[in-house]
Specification:
Elements (H helix, E strand, L loop, with lengths): L1 E3 L3 H11 L15 E4 L9 H16 L3 E4 L13 H12 L22 H13 L3 E4 L3 H12 L12 H4 L7 E4 L8 E3 L3 E6 L13 E3 L7 H11 L4 E5 L6 H11 L5 E5 L2 E2 L16 H5 L4 H9 L20 H7 L10 E2 L2 H35 L5 H11 L8 H4 L17 H12 L5 H12 L3 H13 L7 H8 L1 H13 L1
Parallel strand pairs: 1-7, 2-3, 9-10, 11-12
Antiparallel strand pairs: 4-5, 5-8, 6-7
Helix pairs in contact: 2-11, 7-8, 10-12, 12-13, 15-16, 15-17, 15-19, 17-19, 18-19
The structure holds glutamic acid.
Glutamic acid binds next to loops.
Length: 502
């Protein structure tokens, strides 16, 4: 299918309309894939970039290959303080281990583009020698004029440069442009199939897509550094967001100009809100650690993110598959053959569902690690000093009912403080019940309950409710014996007395 580049959104719409809804076929590699995650440290890692990292990681690990992290930090103006650190920490928290990267090193380093400037300069020179690039000395004013005059052309053109410096070579030009082919090579995207993406030209005023590869500050542009590095780092497969699709013909043209074999490309669909809008802060465009603050486990987040554009194959047709998976199960099941097309809606209720599943699992198998990891979060949230053993007790007691860890502080704040308990809540009989319960404190719970029911002619639920009011401000979640057990005798008795005397 031939697509011309009017605008990114038009390209996207055309792509949606014209591609079949199924995958081009069996595209999952049978050999070890070398993949990379190549973020620009211009912001914190969010859902979309985590998904890109995860898919690249899963592909590498599923095929027995390597996963690289490369920092694309050549646009110095856009760098954000702390972003690099945030990328490392987020990946680590999610369990995505990097084989080669700025922190790990590796045979094809350095892995930070700002440390590779001389490499790009060398390759840009090589491209000039090969006749595929040239220096440009056009002034800013001239380039602006070209841009404005191109925008006014009818029919429109998507490119602006007029090749003045190609025809009048300048030894002094401080930027280097790629001499782009007039027809870009069509390519096969592993998800979208055969794509023929071409620029739009105006034949009366011919302009060229001779994009800059080396800027006046001596630093490479994204396109150039990306291609040189993917080649030198021996990347076999590139999985990246669909927003990079218009760049791919340029990249392939660069590979060809050098005489290099391009990697295989897979462009994954955009993430949208449930209302099919661009992700906003509220619908998921937030830093990964905000999920931790919300009491989400990394394995739940990974499970959720993995399914934003991929689904595990069904073993038996018609029988639904268990979608709750940890990272190693994801590695085992992941395949490029089962990626999905079309925008992916981020449905947070699924995240909560997975969190509940993974919480139960983690608490029953490794409660200590959850407590250790989330203790600082609770400590900060409650502002009340308590110890980690207490948190473990709470996790075991509440674990099966929890959807997210922060429910402990939002729905069960009474476990940390009695500040919010209304000790006057209930009828005068409730007070008497609690008073009597205290008198019978040494007896087994069932026995005292039965006795109180007989003595006061009340139902069991009245006994439970009065005790729940005194111990937990009426909050549901734990049975009375468990509540007493978690709070401990001292606190429980103190609260019961407070209730009687209020
Ligand atoms: N640095 C680009 C980004 O920030 C990398 C895109 C690619 O994977 O080629 O997403």
């Amino acid at each position: 299918m031939l697509l011309r580049w009017y605008s990114k959104s038009a390209l996207r719409t055309k792509l949606r309309r014209s591609v079949p809804s199924s995958n081009p076929g069996t595209v999952h590699p049978a050999v070890a894939a070398r993949t990379r995650f190549a973020p620009s440290p211009t912001g914190f890692l969010h859902l979309g970039s985590l998904r890109t990292a995860l898919y690249n990681y899963l592909l590498a690990k599923n095929t027995g290959g390597q996963f690289l992290l490369r920092l694309e930090d050549t646009d110095q103006k856009r760098l954000v303080e702390g972003a690099e650190e945030n990328i490392y920490r987020s990946l680590k928290w999610c369990g995505i281990e990097v084989d080669e990267g700025p922190q790990q090193g590796g045979p094809y380093g350095p892995y930070r583009q700002s440390d590779r400037t001389s490499i790009y300069q060398r390759y840009a020179e090589e491209l000039i020698q090969l006749g595929h690039a040239y220096r440009c000395s056009c002034s800013q004013e001239r380039l602006l004029f070209l841009r404005d005059s191109a925008a006014a052309l009818k029919p429109p053109t998507t490119v602006t440069y007029d090749r003045k410096c190609l025809h009048n070579p300048s030894e002094t030009g401080d930027i280097i442009r790629f001499k782009s082919p007039s027809v870009y090579e069509p390519f096969d995207d592993l998800l979208h199939g055969h794509l023929n993406l071409q620029q739009q030209y105006n034949s009366d005023d011919r302009r060229y897509d001779d994009f800059v590869i080396l800027k006046s500050d001596g630093l490479p542009t994204y396109h150039f550094a990306n291609v040189v590095d993917d080649h030198l780092m021996r990347i076999t497969h590139v999985i990246r967001g669909e927003e990079w699709l218009p760049s791919t013909p340029k990249h392939i043209a660069l590979y060809r100009a050098f005489g290099w074999e391009p990697p295989q490309f897979t462009h994954i669909p955009l993430l949208t809100s449930m209302a099919d809008k661009k992700l906003s802060k509220r619908s998921g465009d937030i830093g990964i650690f905000s999920y931790k603050e919300r009491g989400i486990l990394p394995e739940a987040l990974i499970n959720f993110v993995a399914l934003l554009g991929w689904s595990p194959p069904r073993d038996t047709p018609g029988v639904s598959v268990d979608e709750t998976m940890n990272l190693s199960q994801l590695v085992e099941k992941f395949s490029l053959n089962h990626l999905t097309k079309g925008n992916v809606k981020v449905n947070e209720s699924k995240l909560i569902f997975f969190n509940k599943q993974h919480l139960q699992q983690r608490i029953s198998t490794d409660c200590d690690s959850v407590a250790a990891e989330y203790f600082p979060v609770f400590d900060a949230a409650t502002g009340h000093k308590f110890d980690i053993t207490y948190l473990k007790k709470i996790l075991v007691a509440l674990g099966p009912s929890l959807q997210s860890l922060n429910e402990i502080t939002t729905n069960h704040a009474y476990l940390f403080t009695d500040d919010d308990i209304d000790f006057t809540k209930g009828t005068p009989t409730f007070k008497k019940i609690v008073q009597r319960f205290l008198e019978l404190w040494a007896s087994p719970f069932a026995e005292s309950t039965t006795k109180i029911c007989e003595e006061f002619n009340v139902k069991k639920k009245d006994v439970f409710q009065s005790l729940r009011n005194a111990l937990a401000g009426g909050a549901p979640g734990l049975t009375i014996p468990v509540l007493v057990e978690v709070l401990g005798d001292d606190t429980a008795v103190k609260r019961l007395k407070k209730y009687v005397n209020a």
